[in-house]
Amino acid sequence: LIEAFKLMIYTRTTDQKAVSFQRQGRMYTYPLNFGQEAAQVGSAFAMDKEIDWLVPAFRELGTWLYKGATLQDIFKYYCGYEEASTFPKAKNYLPSAVPVASQITHAAGVGYALKYQKLPGAVFAYVGDGGTSEGDFHEGMNFMGVWKAPVVVICQNNQYAISVPRSRQTASKNLAIKALAYGMNGIQVDGNDFLAVYQAAASARQLAIEGRGPSFIEAVTYRRGAHTTSDDPSRYRTSEEEERWAQKDPIKRLRNYLLAKGLWNTADEALLIETYEQEIDAAFAEIEHLPYPLENVFKYHYQEMPEHLLRQKVEYEKYLNWKEKELQK
Ligand SMILES: Cc1ncc(C[n+]2csc(CCOP(=O)(O)OP(=O)(O)O)c2C)c(N)n1
């Protein structure tokens, strides 16, 4: 429990730091994880780091860290180094998937391959509530159901797909019920309760490795921050709603539980966060000045660079000069 709680705090500290790096113009974009730490770390803790496969979407920072992605690679990715999203230091780990729900078909394939080759372990795949409305989601779910692939699909229902609320996303009564149609095990859990998520994910993994088929877990949570650093949630939701969910914050809840058990000391928490912040700053400093590879985007799409790309390249070079000057200040 302490390890999990620490990872939740580490995840939140990294998240906050990443947002400030982006705001300072030192990182390009970033999807926020604030408020979803129990859904991520709770499910990750059910995973066998060595033999299980992680098939991520793009908003599972706590899971990524658990599975062995380094801060350096995570930061590199959000600084534009696409290759870093393969997380070369981690084992059995697919690259993050921004095309929404495309990863569910990959997860079905990896699960099927494990079964076909009689390899041990399970696949942990992540998707958002919005992702459940995509074609790839249905194809992947259908395939893993038919083939009883050892897959655990964790859906972080954070209530929004950018600005589209869950209520306008699907007429389905809930998301977990979707599993039924594919002959999969389906369960809805309080995604802000670390223990509930862990229990659901551990049971689902057990079913998977015993050959009893894939599972779909709807972890009901809330994205307390913006969709990404380019989003302004005040345009589509109320502060009353945000306040309601703040009361159910997953870190607050696990902290209260640990305090009640006499397992945690709040005085140590501030110190811990300070140590984490130093570690995170040091990791960012290691990668911040690497030569920026975005020019690949310009170079490799066409044999001869078309006019509009040339214009963008000039703008980009201006930006680089600006950034260089800012860094020297
Ligand atoms: C196929 C596809 N369509 C649209 C987008 C743009 N887009 C990025 S994230 C997102 C919303 C995803 O919502 P959800 O699945 O609920 O995950 P969340 O972002 O809330 O974690 C959209 C529409 C995309 N990346 N891929």
Give a structural overview:
By secondary structure, the protein is an alpha/beta fold. The protein contains 14 helices and 7 strands. The chain has helices spanning 2-23, 37-44, 61-67, 71-78, 102-116, 135-146, 166-169, 178-181, 194-209, 239-246, 250-260, 266-288, 295-299, 307-328; strands at 53-55, 123-128, 151-157, 160-161, 164-165, 185-190, 215-220. The strands form 2 sheets. It has a 5-stranded parallel β-sheet with strand order 1-2-3-7-6, with helices on both faces. A two-stranded antiparallel sheet has the order 4-5. Strand 4 and strand 5 form a beta hairpin. The radius of gyration is 20 Å and the shape is globular. The termini are far apart. The model has no long low-confidence stretch (mean pLDDT 95). The structure holds thiamine diphosphate (TPP).
Radius of gyration: 20 Å
Mean of pLDDT = 95
For the biggest β-sheet, the strand order reads 1-2-3-7-6
Quickly count the helices. 14
Low-pLDDT runs: none
Q: Encode the helix/strand succession as letters.
A: HHEHHHEHEEEHHEHEHHHHH
Largest sheet: 5 strands, parallel
Small-molecule binders here are: thiamine diphosphate
Strand content: 5-15%
Shape: globular
Fraction of helical residues:
40-55%
Q: How many extended strands?
A: 7
Cα end-to-end separation: 43 Å
Structural class, from helix and strand content?
alpha/beta
